[in-house]
Design brief:
heterodimer, A: alpha/beta, 10 helices, B: alpha/beta, 8-stranded mixed beta sheet, about 45% helix, binds guanosine-5'-triphosphate, binds magnesium ion
């Protein structure tokens, strides 16, 4: 028998706990631990470096289930959705700056017409990113503002729309209906323009992220995730479960409150950060 | 459902008179899964299961309750007990012997501090008090506009930063001038901050040192995961927290993080945010929270 490392119950439990501590969830954590246990059986020595390597591979294989040869379509409408306080408005500003530096003609659409000072906040970000913004009257129907933004932008040569929306809890049916209306309006106003519909998710979020992703995905077919606040101590391991269970890829990571604090998602680096 | 899962575990326990180490082991596994699924911290879960095990061992299984029912009741009661502060008045706001009473709000970015500040102001106003809001977030774009808009909506005075003022300065000036502005309770809204951001933690620690607020509340998002305890312990080390506010409780997050935080720090849960509206603030009920966490 070539390899036959048998990991102790204590080691297996410790592995599972550290994965759960990253918010990976016990189902994903236990599946990964079983895989690593099997992989170690083919090894000759119970070397901790080997253990780390197998753990990272198990995480990476789940992250790689979703395509990573993605480029931003041209033209494109990027719709940012998610629960309250996740970082949508800030992310809209960061994306606007990044895509504008990439040579796109960017327009920010102030689709949050509900929350106090929402439009003012996005306007400040538009000014920092040096991009145009279209906003409506506070309290106007979001779909009307989005429609006007797209129509106006298309007639002025915009090729990259970034639509900010109001935070909403996924269990609020009326708010989810409002969002579906916004999606329909995007299709009406910019027919044939590729849509990116991204769930903005706070890295501090626990298992509820699965419900969030499932619900938003069911209502509007998400095409990706932006994971924010990774400059904090939360690990964001839940995206491993989201990639495996829902096939949702992470596109960008928010790593701070500044305009430049956004980096493209890189699966290998993320796996290494989860399993240091 | 946890109750059904535990009932299943004990289905073959007919006729065995007691709960033993062996037969509750599988039930404890089910409880563990339920708690982790509810975002209770891994370490907090371990300690909780130990307590449940001690309570469960040797429990007589009566004819009126199945072993599964006994088990679930122990878990439920233990959770309620840990969510209930020892001091019955711990979950109420404290008022200073001499006005103004200060309420300092702290927490990570986006947890709901600004919204909660206004909700608290309305709560106090309805209680016959004279609250004032202090806009001490000089970081987030349009943060001051946001609080000012809410202050106008609930008709409460607001203190906004003057040119050149830092967070501490606007708080000091508000304390100096609030009584003549008809406000004897000040709610200090601060910028969201990471517990590992030394400059920002120093800023809020200084506000505490110079103003000694009677109430210092950590605002926690109900959907927070395993990181909750790290964050809360760090804040509690720099600020003597007097209460926790659980926000966005109208979502379907189980809210286990708040249980982890209160059991690790001993800080009582005082309020729940249950909507985006200004009326969306409720007192905290341990038994409701226990049922919610257990799913
Ligand atoms: N540290 C850190 N903070 C962030 C990041 N992204 C956003 N934030 C902060 O999180 C808070 C909430 O951000 P917003 O952009 O207002 O979030 P939102 O999703 O638009 O919120 P609502 O519109 O109210 O639902 C702000 O204080 C941001 O500065 C990030 O990557 N890191
Ligand atoms: N549904 C719901 N939404 C809430 C609740 N509390 C706050 N919110 C929403 O959560 C989002 C963030 O709230 P804020 O008050 O801006 O949070 P904050 O902690 O002040 O954010 P920063 O100042 O950026 O750190 C907003 O969209 C609020 O309307 C609540 O109890 N329920
Ligand atoms: Mg926003
Ligand atoms: Mg705020």
């Amino acid at each position: 028998l070539k390899g036959s490392v048998k990991l102790s119950e204590a080691t297996l439990a410790q592995m599972e706990e550290s994965l759960v501590a990253c918010d990976m969830g016990s189902e994903t954590a236990q599946a990964i631990v079983r895989e690593v246990e099997e992989a170690m059986k083919r090894e000759e020595k119970a070397d901790s470096d080997l253990l780390v390597r197998h753990l990272r591979e198990a995480v990476l294989k789940r992250l790689l289930k979703t395509d990573s040869n993605w480029v931003l379509p041209n033209p494109v409408v990027v719709l940012l959705v998610g629960v309250n306080g996740a970082g949508k408005t800030t992310t809209a500003g960061k994306l606007a700056s990044r895509f504008s530096s990439d040579g796109r003609k960017v327009l920010l659409a102030a689709g949050d017409t509900f929350r106090a000072a929402a439009e003012e906040q996005l306007t400040e970000w538009a000014s920092r990113a040096k991009v145009e913004i279209v906003r409506g009257a506070h309290g106007a129907a979001p779909s009307a503002v989005v429609f006007d933004s797209l129509k106006s932008g298309l007639s002025h040569g915009t090729d990259c729309f970034i639509v900010d929306t109001a935070g909403r809890l996924h269990n609020r049916q009326n708010l989810m209906e409002e969002l579906k209306k916004v999606v329909r309006v995007v299709e009406k106003a910019a027919p044939g323009v590729k849509q990116e519909k991204w769930l903005v998710l706070d890295a501090n979020t626990g298992q509820n992220a699965i419900n969030q992703a499932k619900e938003f995905n069911r209502e509007m077919e998400l095409t990706g995730i932006v994971l924010t606040k990774l400059d904090g101590t939360a690990k964001g391991g839940i995206v491993v479960a989201l990639s495996e269970q829902l096939g949702l890829p992470v596109r960008y990571l928010g790593v701070g409150e500044g305009l430049e604090d956004l980096i493209p998602f890189e699966p290998k680096m993320f796996a290494e950060a989860l399993v240091p | 459902q946890l109750t059904e899962k535990i009932q299943k575990v004990f289905k073959n326990l007919r006729g065995q008179g007691k709960l033993t180490e062996e037969n509750i082991q599988e039930a404890l596994k089910q409880v563990r899964l339920a708690l982790l699924e509810a975002d209770v911290n891994v370490e907090t879960t371990k300690l909780f299961l130990e307590r449940v095990k001690v309570k469960a061992l040797g429990k007589e299984v009566s004819l009126s309750l199945s072993p599964g029912q006994v088990m679930v009741k122990i878990v439920h009661d233990e959770l309620i007990q840990l969510l209930t502060p020892k001091d019955k008045n711990a979950n109420k706001l404290k008022f200073a012997p001499a006005p103004p009473t200060l309420i300092l709000l702290a927490g990570l970015q986006g947890t709901g501090k600004t919204t909660t500040a206004a909700k608290l102001a309305l709560w106090l106003k309805k209680d016959g008090r004279r609250p004032g809001l202090v806009a001490a977030d000089l970081v987030r774009p349009a943060a001051i506009d946001q609080l000012a808009t809410l202050a106008k909506e609930i008709d409460v005075p607001i203190f906004k930063p003057e040119p050149g003022e830092k967070a501490l300065d606007v708080c000091l000036r508000a304390v100096k001038t609030c009584l003549q502005n008809n406000a004897n309770i000040l709610i200090l809204d601060t910028a969201g901050r990471l517990q590992i951001d030394e400059d920002m933690m120093k800023e809020i620690a200084e506000i505490h040192q110079k103003l000694k607020p009677t109430n210092i509340m950590l605002v926690v998002d109900a959907m927070t995961g395993q990181n909750a305890v790290n964050v809360a312990q760090a804040f509690h080390a720099r600020l003597p927290l007097t209460g926790l506010v659980l926000t966005k409780a109208d979502g379907d997050a189980r809210g286990g993080a708040i249980f982890s935080i209160t059991s690790v720090t001993g800080v009582p849960i005082q309020f729940m945010g249950v909507s985006e509206k200004m009326e969306g603030l409720e007192p905290f009920y341990p038994d409701r929270m226990a049922s919610r966490i257990l799913g």
